[in-house]
Amino acid sequence: MKFFIDTANLDQIREAQALGVLDGVTTNPSLMAKEGITGEKNIIQHYVDICNIVDGDVSAEVISVDFDGMVREGKALAALHPQIVVKIPMIEEGIKALKYFSDEGIKTNCTLIFSTGQALLAAKAGATYMSPFIGRLDDISTDGLNLIQEIREIYDNYGFETQILAASVRHTMHVIECAKIGADVMTGPLSSIKGLLNHPLTDIGLAKFLEDYSKGNQ
Ligand code: G3P
């Protein structure tokens, strides 16, 4: 399973990259705004800065909601850096844009997926990645992980190559359950990645090893 970090915070991206287990980054306009990155020029520069930190795919989202606008924006984003993946919303014009970019050999990430029908359309349109938002489904008392499971089954039935990018991951159990189901990628906050490290028996065991080592060297 690939690990992406879902943030526009450069320090957190650097920290995840330094761990050596990071495969990419996802961002969205809300995450950019959270870091105070506003205005087209600054946003574009921020994407380039992110690409210069990580080795893997970096999703950059279009703002247009019409086909021509998405194509224009997506082409400009893709030209910024070879690691850029054009993020397209799951709307009718977005499906057309996904197909266009797929035919052009430009990588895409179809965002704002909340149903199996949308997942099927994203795969038919040739999306490289598609992002079901599991945390936001959980927020409205709908089982987000169940959606991942159903999409996995549908994609496996037909051998769709579109990668399931579990998004809106909030915590470590989401990561583990996504791995059990067979999501291709998960994207979450740094805490959902670093949280996987934690176990009290590891801390107790290490303290004991260090204590016994120092006894032997006294
Ligand atoms: O990757 C999608 C993500 O940015 C949404 O996460 O936590 O705002 O639901 P969240």
Strand content: 15-25%
| Rough outline | globular
Helix-strand topology string: EHEHHEHEHEHEHHEHEHH
Average pLDDT confidence is: 97
Task: Figure out the total of helices.
Answer: 11
Strand order, largest beta sheet: 1-2-3-4-5-6-7-8
Distinct bound molecules: SN-glycerol-3-phosphate
- End-to-end Cα distance: 45 Å
**Biggest beta sheet summary:** 8 strands, parallel, barrel
Structural class: alpha/beta
Low-confidence stretches: none
Rg measurement, Å: 19 Å
Find the count of extended strands (DSSP E, 2+ residues).
Answer: 8
**Fraction of helical residues:** 40-55%
Itemize the secondary structure elements and their pairings.
Elements: E1 2-6, H1 10-19, E2 24-26, H2 29-34, H3 40-53, E3 57-61, H4 67-80, E4 84-89, H5 92-104, E5 108-113, H6 116-124, E6 129-132, H7 134-139, H8 144-158, E7 163-166, H9 172-181, E8 185-188, H10 190-194, H11 200-216
Helix pairs in contact: 4-5, 6-8, 8-9
The structure holds SN-glycerol-3-phosphate (G3P).
In brief, what are we looking at here?
By secondary structure, the chain is α/β, with parallel strands linked by helices. It is built from eleven helices and eight strands.
Name some characteristics of this structure.
218 residues; alpha/beta; eight-stranded parallel beta barrel; globular; binds SN-glycerol-3-phosphate
Question: How would you describe this protein?
Answer:
- The protein is α/β, with parallel strands linked by helices and 218 residues long.
- The chain is built from 11 helices and 8 strands.
- It has helices at 10-19, 29-34, 40-53, 67-80, 92-104, 116-124, 134-139, 144-158, 172-181, 190-194, 200-216; strands spanning 2-6, 24-26, 57-61, 84-89, 108-113, 129-132, 163-166, 185-188.
- An 8-stranded parallel barrel has the order 1-2-3-4-5-6-7-8, surrounded by 7 helices.
- β3, α4 and β4 (84-89) form a beta-alpha-beta unit.
- α4 (67-80) crosses α5.
- 37% of the residues are buried.
- The model has no long low-confidence stretch (mean pLDDT 97).
- Bound molecules: SN-glycerol-3-phosphate (G3P).
- SN-glycerol-3-phosphate binds next to α7.
